[in-house]
Amino acid sequence: MAHKIPATVVTGFLGAGKTTLIRHMLQNTSGKRIALIINEFGDLGVDGDILTGCGDETCTEDDVVELSNGCICCTVADEFIPTIEQLLARDPKPDHIVIETSGLALPQPLVQAFNWPDIKTKVTVDGVVTVVDGKAVSEGRFAHSVEAVDAQRALDENFDHETPLSELFEDQVACADMIVVNKSDLLGEDAAKELVAKLKDDSRTGVQVIRTTMGALPVDVLLGQGIGAEDDMGARHAHHHHHHDDHDDDHDDHHDHDHDEFESFVVERDEITNVAAFTTKVADIIREYDILRLKGFVAVADKPMRLTVQAVGPRIDSYFDKPFGSDPRTTQLVVIGQAGLDQAAITKALQA
């Protein structure tokens, strides 16, 4: 069966920080060829900062496609499907497709479009990422500027659904595989924790809720979720079929971001004897310590091949990929999480 190209859908209201998140991703792609679909409308055009951050051989201007005729969820057949087909026809093909929806667009119809017969066998939804303005949501406004959202709603001639922002927000959360609480630095620690806890309660089991500042999310966390969201539409219930808004217009000054809000470390251990028991234990450790990603290679007693382990939250995939050969028979696991992980406790648990 042909390899499916993964696609990540990024949604969220105007000003939440979608542009900043994507710009940061493009600056840290580690050689991945990213194709970008931006859902603008009107006269706004693609954010110049996006093109600035997409200027090397892995993401050229030809890899950025602007859909400017209204909300993407209302132009699936006319614009979105042909655009995906054009990207898939390129040589070389993209390694990953990232789609930024307009802020008032529902992600559900867009995800459903990946079941379209001509693309279903070629591309899959790696995950839906909903970016929220942490301070605005904590204050019950959902968007940094409700007036700006209303203005964008009025500018879109195709928009014909007068829906409260609170319901649109609920729909975006309902479809999310990851919720990024951006601008978390504007919240106090207690308020940030309270908001994260509430969003976890309001979302499906297993959805990761992550705090960020200026969209500085490691690419290894943002991409590679492996969800296959188009096959899970029943769990992504929406209030409505269509909504709209405009491209994220987050124009914070450009900064060089490090990953101070995130940390990673490597755990080494001896061979394991029981794969099922080990992966069950790893899932329990991930839940207990709120680990975002875990990946690496494991030596299994009496097995010449190494076991590859990849975990997104507590969901773990494992498979034997190749013989160790001359490589040392060691187990090395990379743990990725938000700053403050109890490295000593996690290491002890994984080595037990």
Description:
With 352 residues, this protein is an alpha/beta fold. It folds into two domains: 5-235, Rossmann fold (3-Layer(aba) Sandwich), CATH 3.40.50.300; 262-351, Hypothetical Protein Yjia, Chain: A,domain 2 (2-Layer Sandwich). Helices cover 30% and strands 22% of the residues. The protein has helices spanning 18-26, 48-52, 76-88, 107-112, 117-120, 134-138, 146-155, 165-175, 189-202, 219-222, 275-289, 343-351; strands at residues 5-11, 34-38, 64-66, 96-100, 123-133, 178-182, 208-211, 262-269, 293-298, 305-312, 315-323, 331-338. Strands 3-2-4-1-5-6-7 form a seven-stranded parallel beta sheet, with helices on both faces. β2 (34-38), α2 and β3 form a beta-alpha-beta unit. The chain is globular, with a radius of gyration of 21 Å. The relative contact order is 0.16.
Radius of gyration: 21 Å
Strand content: 15-25%
CATH architecture annotation of the largest domain: 3-Layer(aba) Sandwich
CATH superfamily of the largest domain, by name, is: P-loop containing nucleotide triphosphate hydrolases
Instruction: Output the strand order for the largest sheet.
Output: 3-2-4-1-5-6-7
CATH structural fold name of the largest domain: Rossmann fold
The amount of helix comes to 25-40%
Overall mean pLDDT stands at 78
Q: In CATH's first tier, which class of the largest domain applies? A: Alpha Beta
- In total, the number of domains comes to 2
Number of strands: 12
What is the first-to-last residue Cα distance? Answer: 39 Å
